[in-house]
Amino acid sequence: MIAGRTRIVIAIAGLSLLILLLFIADLLLGSTHMNFADVMGSLFGKGDPGDEIIVMQFRLPKAITAVLAGAAMSVSGLLMQTLFRNPLAGPDVLGVSSGAGLGVALTLLTLTPLITLPAGSLLAGWGLILAAWAGAGVVMLIIMAVSARMRDIMTVLIVGLLLASAISAVVSLLQYFSNEAMLRTYVIWTMGNLGSISYPQIRALSLATAVGLVIAFIMVKPLNAMLMGETFSRTVGVKMQRTRIILLASASILAGSVTAFCGPLAFIGVAVPHVARLIFGTTDHRTLMPGAALCGAVIMLLSDIISNAPGGGHIIPVNTVTSLVGIPVVLWIIIGKRGLGRKF
Amino acid sequence: MSRIIPLIISAALLISSCRHGVNPPVAEQSMDDSLNVAGRLKLEKVAGATRATVTNPWQNSTGKELVWYLVQRDSAVPGDVSEDQIIRVPVSRIVCMSVTHIAMLQALDAGNVIAGISGSSLVYDSVIREGISSGRIRDVGYEGNLNRELIISLNPDVLMAYGVADPSAGSTARLADAGIKVFYNADYLEEHPLARCEWLRLFGILTGKVQMADSIVASVSEAYRELTALVRGSAGRRPAVLLGSPWEDVWYISPGNSYIGRLIEDAGGKYIYGEMTGAHSVPLSVESVFRKAEEADIWINPGTADRLSDIVATDPRMASLHPFREGQVWNNRRRITSGDGNDYWESAVVRPDLLLMDLVSIIHPELLPGFVQYYYRRLE
Fold this sequence. Notes:
- The complex is a heterodimer.
- Chain A is mainly alpha-helical.
- Chain A has helices at residues 4-28, 36-43, 49-84, 96-109, 127-149, 153-176, 180-190, 199-218, 220-227, 230-235, 240-262, 268-280, 285-307, 318-336.
- In chain A, helix 1 packs parallel to helix 13, helix 12 packs across helix 13 and helix 12 runs parallel beside helix 14 (318-336).
- Chain B has two domains: 40-189, 3-Layer(aba) Sandwich (Rossmann fold), CATH 3.40.50; 220-378, Nitrogenase molybdenum iron protein domain (Rossmann fold).
């Protein structure tokens, strides 16, 4: 067993290198053939104009989105697991993803969009994203309001689950009254996608991710204290109520924004924190936080590469990739390690 | 009244075609006349009835045949035919599950038999929409969400349905159990535009307007073939055509043997996915379609876009496509309602010749100078 500190340095360096390699691989591998020189030429503005559009407008934004979404969902999941001290918690337990889904369903499945934008305005193309954001935001505010009133964190978890179920019921109702074409557009949204995001949208997603991550990193000390239990946290001066609300806000900003831009990305938020704990062999959030972010980015990049695997222009929705490829990997890790450990 | 314009145009086309020789009088075209389009509907005269056989009535229904006997109200039931297989004609009340059924009845001036429809917001025809708002025509809901009690209370002579998959477990099957005559219409599965139009003959028998239906089918087929011959004869370059629009990061591609793929070929275009065959549209990555679309000259049916800016709003990358830059983007949304109604999905089923004219005028404008499209509009 390598000593703790060395192991962490090696793991961080290894994951960073892996991200770099996978990022380049993601730019190289797409549904149309392009060699290394073509891709590099296009990146630096010296390629064939057709290649340049594919690399700069299709592959680069997709790869950047994969990194952002993977990191944000994983950190959001880590926050939820520590906050609720529950290994099954993830960004979706709060109903934030469901809230975003409701916003999208209201826009896609009814004839009256939740948010109507004047055509040709600066915000054209943002309607769906704003609707998802609004839906996620409303749920986040409800959860925070409940959390401010309740001493017991389990009550917040239950409220979140109930809210998510209620929202799913409303979405089902909307689907029930929709025609096939509307249903298909909604179903495709629920399968997650990384590839339809423009640069201005990436800037917004980066900003939201940065805000969420900065808040999360500031909270590492109270998070570590929380692992010892609420009583311990209080004795070391953690203001539980306030800490919870800040953590909920951070997790919701991260998960809500990613869901708004990429659809509900399944699995990443729940699984990646476990992978990070196993790789880094620690529950210290000072290590785990960047570790989870890096692991999340690696897994999303890998999933995006695999989604192009069928070839011939066919693609697999990214959500099915993360689940079908990720679940066996996590199962293997868990069974190999004989359990996840009980340090929540 | 909207139906007069296309009739005038096709009449003009028919007259112009007469110079090739004697145009066969439409009345002589009998019901058994084969139009060389291998359709899924077969109509045969049997003793005292017309037997309607629908082969492969829904997707993946290889070998399945549904048989109905259409019997005059005052005629005796032919020998060994079970009552379950009989529809008495002419019918006085129909419930239509698709707008194409509405279009066929309206083409025969028989819209008055429509008692119920599915999805009222999808209807284009103004007369039918008036009927809906006045309450004369009822909306029976969508498949999976059908108001079965309403349908039974409407007491239709036939429920004109369509099967997306085997409907034996669906709600229309329960209606059949309740004694409603559910006819699974497969018009939407027909790949050849003329085979789809042929279904008008079924509605002709159902409404007692056989001659009218036969004559429309004959003149439309004639006009379609004349136009195809004109396009073939001109033998110029075949401009490459891109079809559809992306959604998120997928682009559903219709195969080359689809209805619209066939129309593009017949209009003298080269569909960029023309070599792809299959029964369904296939999801491809936007990247790969974008790459292939660089060679396209014309882009048709870009989703629900009514302006070029609508396309940019959905996916700004599409603005760099060749047909977009050249202003050659056309959508089938010239005739739409403020709801979801689009006449392209409705009356065009009876007027494939007119639809073909639109596409010829888009793909080969030199062949139809000055022609103003009926279903299509160029996006500004």
